[in-house]
Amino acid sequence: MIDQHDRFGDGSDVRAYLPAFVADAREHLQDLGLAILRIEAAPDDRLATEGIFRVAHSLKGMSATMGFEAIVALTHAMEDVFELLRQRAGGLPPQAIDVLSACLDALEGAVESIAAGGGERLDPEPLVERLRQLARERTPSQELARAGDVALPDLTRTLATGEHLLRVVAELAEDCQMPGVRAFMVFEALRVHGELVGSVPAPDAVERFAGRRLEAWVATRADASALEECARAVGELASVRAEEAETLPSGSALGETTAVAAGARAGAATVRVDAERLDELLHLMGELVQHRTTVEALAADADVPGLAQAVQRLARTSQALQETITRVRMVPVESVFLRFPRLVRDLATRLGKQVELRLEGADTELDRTVVDALGDPLVHLVRNALDHGLETPDERAAAGKPPVGVLELSARHAGGHVIVSVRDDGRGIDPALVGRAAVERGLLGPEDAAALDAAAAAELLFAPGFSTARATTDVSGRGVGMDAVRERVRALGGEVAIEPAPDGCGTAAQLRLPLTLASIAALLVTIDDLPYAIPLDRVVRTVRLDAVEIRTVRGASLLPLGGELLPLIPLSPSGQRDRGAADRAYAVVLTAAAGRRVALAVSALAGQRELVTRRLPNDVSPHAAATGGAVLPDGQVALVIDCDALTPGQPEGVHP
Asked: Which of 16-20, 187-191, 300-304 has the lowest mean pLDDT?
């Protein structure tokens, strides 16, 4: 284990590589989960079966290097079994899905335990035994291929028009110091002329190769002399011979060979970067933008030939750089969506329901910070849909619906935002049921509950501690969920709403999230000579206060606009609501929580800006109505106003 062997053979510290191991392991386990879902849908999907084999092979190698022996034992058994199963006609046996799911759970638990510093916490033996029950014994030729030193060409490989199969045999020079490196270079040189469909040693065994003889089978349009010439150019070879491959050895490792080679090439094209470095790069980019703005202002007043053109080029380049850095932070929501097929499958089984899960727009990209925080809110919404929304097959049949309910997770772009929806075709929201629960919890009086419509009932679900469940279970009924969902989404600068479908045909929960938390388009305003920023997508309109008559009801200022009275909120310089009169020059009409509109009294409008934002320090009052801050070109810090926190206390008897 890592606490017993803290150093590799070269003396380097094993623990220094632990973050990279955990990150890679999580990616491999995500691929494993996806492969399991594909196999469940199509048991004869050979690509998915080979994907499981490759994940097990990769995890085994990584874990062996780090000294995690329990993971090595389990993944070694998975590799052995699925090497056999991928050669079986007719696909995987049904029980393989349950065994694979148990292996995935165990590996995820082990990796997370390692990440938390608690060691593997994994007993592989029960799962190893279940795996062995899935497969028959290995044949002698399969034992040969299992050694990993040989990747034999596929007998079923179909050559394209003009292609032929050449066998290349090379002998390394006696004085070759690094045969593994030289073998790798020979194989890469041969790939220039075609597809390497088999080799001795296999591509994933090159690094430990210590022999002298190399063999490769290449599907190519080139002639033998071209392959011999490119191999000789590598150097340190005693001889090279290329010939038509007339007879082939038995066995099949094409899927593994090509996949490993493709994985190596893909891996070489990416670089893992710590997220904190990306954040710091973005902050530096924000400072560069601020300095650029300052230079532009100075250049406008300077009479220097060519300066204006140089500043324009600087502006274009820095803007392109800012967009590129922002895109680097973007990741697809697929990483969140892929956790739900397994959750839905298991929970539907426990609840006795039949559910078809549909995933739409999984390639939609969001800021990494938003995606990381999106998982928990979506889990709450999915569990609510399964427990409260979708009916059992008998209930659906009685309602004239198909026995299988539909649960859809989707994501789409909408301007500068992404809309993530959780939609079901279940029973919908019953205002009467919600009203009774609200009366029992003292949230509404009987008369107000009787007048509750579907929209008001949907909004009531966000009340803290609210639940319509009659019994508390480990799925729901504890009164914790929807209020936590809204709080989490608002912390991301977004909003969540529930839209009941008519006639009991389902419910849709929509999360409106910003594309990125790194920058916002904002309206700059001043309040008592201090700068503030208001997210531009929340601004409805601006109004001069000297053009309207402000009304006051029991000390609360109201702005009459379009036939309604909007709460007029004056802020203090601390970012909190003050109690003074609305004696400022302008009102900015905003969309606040749950679609409500409020008006914010400000001293002046300073224009529209693209701002790079940062989170507020922990010692800033949590009651301040601000979600972050942005440094302006003149060095001042503008607080970004949290529009959802501006909902005022409503005076009794006033209904704006």
From this structure: 16-20
Distance CA 452, CA 618 (A): 40
510: its two tokens: 């929509």
Query: Torsion over CA of 532, 537, 540 and 546, rounded to 10 degrees?
Result: 20
Give the residue among 511, 519, 545, 512 at the shortest CA–CA distance from 640.
Answer: 519
Confidence label for 262 from pLDDT (cuts 50, 70 and 90):
very low
Residue 209 has pLDDT above 50, yes or no: yes
What DSSP string runs through 166-204? EEEEEEE-TT-S-HHHHHHHHHHHHHTTEEEEEEES-GG
- CATH code matching the domain that covers 147-268, chosen among 3.65.10.10, 3.30.2130.10, 3.30.70.1110, 3.40.50.2020: 3.30.70.1110
Domain boundaries, the chain: 14-137, 147-268, 277-329, 332-514, 519-646
The CATH class that applies to domain 14-137 reads: mainly alpha
Say if residue 420's pLDDT is above 90: yes
Q: What are phi and psi of 205, to 5 degrees?
A: -115, 5
Other C-beta atoms lying within 10 Å of the C-beta of residue 646: 20
Q: Is the dihedral of CA 554, 559, 561, 566 positive or negative?
A: negative
Most confident range (mean pLDDT) of 287-291, 465-469, 471-475 is: 287-291
pLDDT per residue over 428-444, tens digit each?
888 888 888 888 877 88
> Cα 358 to chain center, whole Å?
17
* Domain 519-646 coded CATH 2.30.30.40: yes
User: Residue type at 70?
Assistant: A
The CATH-assigned architecture of domain 332-514 is 2-Layer Sandwich (3.30)
With beta carbons less than 8 A apart as the criterion, state whether 28 and 58 touch. Answer: yes
Tokens at residue 151, please? Answer: 């990747």
- Interior angle at CA 244, CA 243 and CA 247, nearest 5: 115
